[in-house]
């Protein structure tokens, strides 16, 4: 602040904003590490995509694990015109990727936000070309390797992230807390996405049912978005990265103790019990 001026100079404002971003990120990192939720956003709410992704980028820098892939979430139609994008991404860290078994733990942060999401995961077959920031679905399809059924362990420590819209979700590690990777879908290119259907049940009751074609533009469009967005963030997708392409049957809020299943019929099922997330050392 310049004495007597009543305003802060641009460099001072930029420094304050940067410190705020790092401080916000540190709160998310600390809470996620301790597996303890919190009710209030730690600072001013992000006003746009740039601010939200700045917090996410700071979180990535402070988190001691490598990125194994990216989740893709949707921005609701009323907000697409406001933000200029219809999807968002968040990092999936290597230590949180689990191979599905007969029974699986779905780790929920106590007093945070948790949602069970049935998804298809596409494995990148090669590194994305350096500097390429615009992708069509056809171009993305050329980089698509194996496809798997999966459950995204969606959520994080900030309890109200989903209530306040996509910006706070982006700023909360992109709303990802892990991935349970199921069976591969053989010869998926020969199939229609209408033929890949999923039924999600929670405590035995059907919570949602849909085909993979319910993903706008199909999961390949989600991959194309992830390729473009991560490139613009300076974190281009690499060979072997897992791209979780969006919730097929919906975003199903869950609580500790519930039993949830994503049943993809002939392609397999993933059964989970929601358990209290353990602290991460």
TrEMBL record:
<dbReference type="GO" id="GO:0005737">
    <property type="term" value="C:cytoplasm"/>
</dbReference>
<dbReference type="GO" id="GO:0008684">
    <property type="term" value="F:2-oxopent-4-enoate hydratase activity"/>
</dbReference>
<dbReference type="InterPro" id="IPR036663">
    <property type="entry name" value="Fumarylacetoacetase_C_sf"/>
</dbReference>
<dbReference type="InterPro" id="IPR011234">
    <property type="entry name" value="Fumarylacetoacetase-like_C"/>
</dbReference>
<feature type="domain" description="Fumarylacetoacetase-like C-terminal">
    <location>
        <begin position="115"/>
        <end position="275"/>
    </location>
</feature>
<dbReference type="InterPro" id="IPR050772">
    <property type="entry name" value="Hydratase-Decarb/MhpD_sf"/>
</dbReference>
<protein>
    <submittedName>
        <fullName>2-keto-4-pentenoate hydratase-like protein</fullName>
    </submittedName>
</protein>
<keyword id="KW-0456">Lyase</keyword>
<feature type="region of interest" description="Disordered">
    <location>
        <begin position="1"/>
        <end position="21"/>
    </location>
</feature>
<dbReference type="Pfam" id="PF01557">
    <property type="entry name" value="FAA_hydrolase"/>
</dbReference>
């Amino acid at each position: 602040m310049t004495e007597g001026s009543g305003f802060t100079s641009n460099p001072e404002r930029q420094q304050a904003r940067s410190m705020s971003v790092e401080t916000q990120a540190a709160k998310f990192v600390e809470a996620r590490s301790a597996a303890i939720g919190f009710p209030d956003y730690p600072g001013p709410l992000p006003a746009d995509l740039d601010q939200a992704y700045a917090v996410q980028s700071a979180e990535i820098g402070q988190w001691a694990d490598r990125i194994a892939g990216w989740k893709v979430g949707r921005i609701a139609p009323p907000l697409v015109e406001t933000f200029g994008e219809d999807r968002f991404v968040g990092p999936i860290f290597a230590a949180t990727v689990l191979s599905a078994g007969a029974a699986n733990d779905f780790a929920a942060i106590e007093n945070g936000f948790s949602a069970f999401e049935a998804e298809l995961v596409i494995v990148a077959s090669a590194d994305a070309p350096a500097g390429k920031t615009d992708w069509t679905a056809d171009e993305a399809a050329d980089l698509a390797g194996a496809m798997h059924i999966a459950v995204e362990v969606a959520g994080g420590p900030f309890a109200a992230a989903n209530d306040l819209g996509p910006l706070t979700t982006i700023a909360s590690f992109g709303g990802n807390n892990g991935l349970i990777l199921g069976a591969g879908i053989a010869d998926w290119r020969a199939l229609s996405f209408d033929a890949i259907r999923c039924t999600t049940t929670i405590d035995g009751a059907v919570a949602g049912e849909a085909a993979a074609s319910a993903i706008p533009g199909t999961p390949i469009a989600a991959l194309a978005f992830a390729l473009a967005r991560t490139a613009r963030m300076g974190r281009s997708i690499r060979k072997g990265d897992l791209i979780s392409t969006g919730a097929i049957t919906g975003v199903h809020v869950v609580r500790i103790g519930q039993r949830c299943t994503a049943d993809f019929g002939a392609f397999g099922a993933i059964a989970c019990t929601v358990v209290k997330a353990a602290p991460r050392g």
